[in-house]
């Protein structure tokens, strides 16, 4: 997915440790609708408490989504991947982090986000059970949590909202459909278990699952249109918004993979001039400016470690690429093994990604 696809629909939040952070219009739409619905459905006896509860929910959601994406970034740095931009949506990041096509590394980076949301739930759970004496199972309902807004104390309310929102983010992101982390993890798992199935077919399969899931959510939204609310938001609205995200993201991902495979040159890049032509085609990009701060310093340290590991991986790929190209020129495509083709595909994707930026 090209980073510019999201730029017209998102608001820049600046650079954090060299990473561009943007807030997508879907999050802003979700926030406006949430505040509108809490205003319309507030009771006369509650004054403005319901509205402030909606504001608190949005702040916790934004913080939780941001931590979710920072976990992805940290995991990506650990495996030597580059992170240039993150786009925050209402259910997580909308811009997948590009990892060199190694399924184990992809799974590690993908699962880091949902796991941080689960860790937050595990931290909040003992406080809710012991200090508030609340039945935790009631808060596990993703659409109609029980006991979420039954406390007048702001701190208790914030802890319960933090638990429920992060639990909801965890459930949504493990759905096996694009653009959720579960969809990307399913694609990586398919490629890992059945390499012959192919990356393109795996993407198309998961995109199809996402579209079916979106259709099912629209049907569910119609069936529960007269039911209660999902926290501060009506259940039908939450389901429709999630269905929109699933459907359009799946369609975009399927179109992107088709565009890549419509290229006429092998592996999506012209190797006719040899491997060194890749180096000549790259433009020198100066390092982005970094802002001081705790997050910036943490991300900078991760970036330095990542660059050292990446340099080693790329040097090894360069050496193997020269050998493969020599055999390719001498004996043709049939002499290449599946591992050789994966290496050519991986290197091609890396350079194409850099040229698109």
Question: How would you characterize the overall build of this protein?
Answer:
The chain is α+β, with helices and mostly antiparallel strands. Helices cover 64% and strands 7% of the residues. The chain contains 11 helices and 6 strands. The strands form 2 sheets. Strands 1-2-3-4 form a 4-stranded mixed sheet. The protein has a two-stranded antiparallel sheet with strand order 5-6. The longest helix has 38 residues, at 294-331. Residues 264-285 have low confidence and may be disordered.
Give a count of the beta strands, DSSP E runs of length 2 or more: 6
Helicity level = 55-70%
N-to-C series of helices and strands: EEHHEEHHHHHEEHHHH
Query: What's the end-to-end separation, in Å?
Result: 11 Å
Rg of Cα set: 23 Å
3D shape: elongated
SS-based structural class? alpha+beta
| Low-confidence runs | 264-285
What is this entry, summarized?
The protein is α+β, with helices and mostly antiparallel strands and 357 residues long.
Question: Which keywords apply here?
Answer:
two-stranded antiparallel sheet, 357 residues, alpha+beta, 11 helices, four-stranded mixed β-sheet
What order do the helices and strands come in, and which of them pair?
Layout: E1 10-16, E2 19-24, H1 25-40, H2 49-78, E3 85-89, E4 92-93, H3 103-131, H4 136-139, H5 154-173, H6 181-193, H7 199-223, E5 229-230, E6 233-234, H8 235-261, H9 276-281, H10 294-331, H11 338-356
Parallel strand pairs: 2-3
Antiparallel strand pairs: 1-2, 3-4, 5-6
